[in-house]
Amino acid sequence: MNKVNVDPQELAKFGELAHRWWDPNSEFKPLHDINPLRLDWIDKAVGLSGKKVLDVGCGGGLLSEGMAARGAQVTGIDLSDKALGVARLHLLESQLQVNYREVAVEALAMEQPCGYDVVTCLEMLEHVPDPASVVQACAKLVKPGGQVFFSTINRNPKAYVFAIIGAEYLLKLLPRGTHDYARFLRPAELSGCCRNAGLEVAEIIGMSYNPLTKTYTLGRDTSVNYLLRTARND
Ligand SMILES: C[S@@+](CC[C@H](N)C(=O)[O-])C[C@H]1O[C@@H](n2cnc3c(N)ncnc32)[C@H](O)[C@@H]1O
């Protein structure tokens, strides 16, 4: 790869808000709300305790800390220095251990091939110019047989209405401009990227928001938000 696979405007967006990352009533409320669900799902699949885990696009560290609290040895990487600053500061409060690094996933894949039992890359692919390159790097970083988890947003009219009009304009769950529809990925497209990278898709699960109960659930509906569980098949 000749240039870093990053959109500086995306990093700036997250950097500006980073100081509110751990406020459960801030712009990051949706991430706080979905964190227990995704943590349980990942833990059930891999048994996090004792595992060496890489969290790609870790931001302020919600998932990284959650996995560390369950006994994983976690490295979190991101390219937003502000988000990483907040993540490091929060460790003082939580007393957990996470190794945070500002490094591109593609560069880390050259440095530590097959370095991790588990790789997570959640709510990040829709913010990068070349998601396939991130998937390739994640596949290189996991050990043969190890599992890689992705989550992102589907691309179809319903996803546009729910994830952009609904979440950003009507319910105001997220700041306007958080998401760019063109960067949403259909499950078939992401599955194709995974297969090209040597990752076998083991499970695709949907995540839905109920505006009446204001709760998220995991289930069969992958039409808006969804998660993918894959395993390196060599
Ligand atoms: C919506 S946040 C998700 C944070 C975390 N993964 C979670 O789900 O709680 C997206 C994160 O991706 C990061 N990001 C965007 N482009 C990136 C890139 N090219 N490399 C690494 N991180 C990136 C942002 O800085 C931000 O922290």
UniProtKB/TrEMBL annotation:
Recorded hits in SUPFAM superfamilies, A to Z, give: S-adenosyl-L-methionine-dependent methyltransferases (SSF53335)
Q: Provide the binding site for S-adenosyl-L-methionine.
A: R38, G57, D78, L122
Q: Which domain of life is it from?
A: Bacteria
Reaction(s) the record says it catalyses: a 3-demethylubiquinol + S-adenosyl-L-methionine = a ubiquinol + S-adenosyl-L-homocysteine + H(+); a 3-(all-trans-polyprenyl)benzene-1,2-diol + S-adenosyl-L-methionine = a 2-methoxy-6-(all-trans-polyprenyl)phenol + S-adenosyl-L-homocysteine + H(+)
Identify the pathway. Cofactor biosynthesis; ubiquinone biosynthesis
InterPro entries for this protein: SAM-dependent_MTases_sf, UbiG_MeTrfase
Question: Tell me, which GO biological process terms does this entry list?
Answer: methylation
> Is the keyword Methyltransferase assigned to this protein?
yes
- Signal peptide as annotated in the record: none
Q: One GO molecular-function annotation for this sequence?
A: 3-demethylubiquinol 3-O-methyltransferase activity
What EC number(s) does the entry state?
2.1.1.222, 2.1.1.64
This protein's UniProt keywords: Methyltransferase, S-adenosyl-L-methionine, Transferase, Ubiquinone, Ubiquinone biosynthesis
Q: What class of enzyme is it?
A: transferase
Describe the task this protein carries out. O-methyltransferase that catalyzes the 2 O-methylation steps in the ubiquinone biosynthetic pathway.
Query: What does the sequence similarity comment in the record state about its family?
Result: Belongs to the methyltransferase superfamily. UbiG/COQ3 family.
Task: Output this protein's name.
Answer: Ubiquinone biosynthesis O-methyltransferase
